[in-house]
Amino acid sequence: MEVVMSFEEFWKVYPRRIAKFAARKAWDKALKHNQEHEILEGAKRYAVEREDENPKFTKHPSTWLNGGCWMDDPGANGGHEKSYAELADDLRHDDTGSSSSESDLFGATISTRSRYNGHH
């Protein structure tokens, strides 16, 4: 009964509650070789790291458990990698913070390409 309660505690603190059955199996497997309090502390730390982040980039609990992610360095899971759209948006802004037009961004790319193709 105690293992069930500890899983429920994990489930409450974990930042993304999806696929509970798979998470329970991964929890049971993780407990065979790890201390419950270490996993719970890691889940709490991960929940803090994922605050204000897009939940789409938060690991499923079974993935997190199977990967032993409670042992990750603090801060290793904070934030998310930028999407192509976010990277393109960053490129559209110059050092002053003002925005360039999209045609300028793509125009620069086209003129560079034509220079390499022998066109001047």
Structure, briefly:
By secondary structure, the protein is mainly α.
The secondary-structure class comes to: mainly alpha
Q: What would you report as the Rg, rounded to the nearest angstrom?
A: 22 Å
Mean pLDDT comes to: 78
State the share of residues found in helices, binned by percent: 55-70%
Explain the overall architecture.
- With 120 residues, this protein is mostly helical.
- 56% of the residues lie in helices and 0% in strands.
- The longest helix has 15 residues, at 102-116.
- It is elongated.
- The termini are far apart.
Provide keyphrases for this structure.
6 helices; 120 residues; mainly alpha; 0% strand
Show the helix and strand layout.
Layout: H1 2-13, H2 20-31, H3 36-49, H4 61-66, H5 84-91, H6 102-116
